[in-house]
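Re: beginner question about structure tokens

> Can someone show what the tokenized structure looks like for a real chain? I only ever see the sequence side.

Sure, here's an example I had lying around. Input first:
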Amino acid sequence: MTRPPTAAQRRVIDAADPVTGRLRGTESQLAALVKRELAFRHPRPPHDHFLTPAGHRIREETANAAESAPEAAEPAREPARESSGVFTARVGGEEGIDSGPSRIREVHSAWQGLLELRRMTNPHGVVDRPCAWERTHLVQAAALALEAAGHRPADAPTDSEGYRVRATPQPEAVAVRGPDAEALRECAATLEQAGWQVGEHTEPRTGARYLLASPRRT
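And the corresponding structure tokens:
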């Protein structure tokens, strides 16, 4: 069984860019993470190091533990991303998340980071289709594409306006719901432009329309 990372290695993992997984650390720390298959060294200059899916899982476990721990010193209504320091795309239905200028800057930065991750990890450096990270974080990836394009997420669990992105039983597919047909068409256009395959479907029982979106491979 693989030994868990050391405290120093965990600090390097926890400090990785939340979207791209780009790492900063000493050569020995990065080499040790590569040896444990928690990171990889990109073959193209400047040969930066990035988290592997296993490294991302460790980082997310740490973030989830931080979110669930008692926060006596934090305000009770503080958004989860503020307490953990981890950027999270809005999937719709969250409460207490800032939607002001700072959030817009964060979303723009996250989207640019994701495009850079595509360039660094996709074959031939293409940025017009999703990368491996997006295929293992389907809901976050689709939600980030929508939020970065200016679509409005639902602001609360009971909010009937705005988009909602949810996982589905189908492999590599998410469901996107919106308030009306026009909003769904706009979401579909955005996702297709971001490299997703999108189809419109109808709920058999309710007749409600929704999108089924999957990352495009070619």
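Each token stands for a local structural state, so reading them left to right follows the chain. Strands lie at 39-41, 49-51, 164-167, 174-177, 196-202, 209-215.
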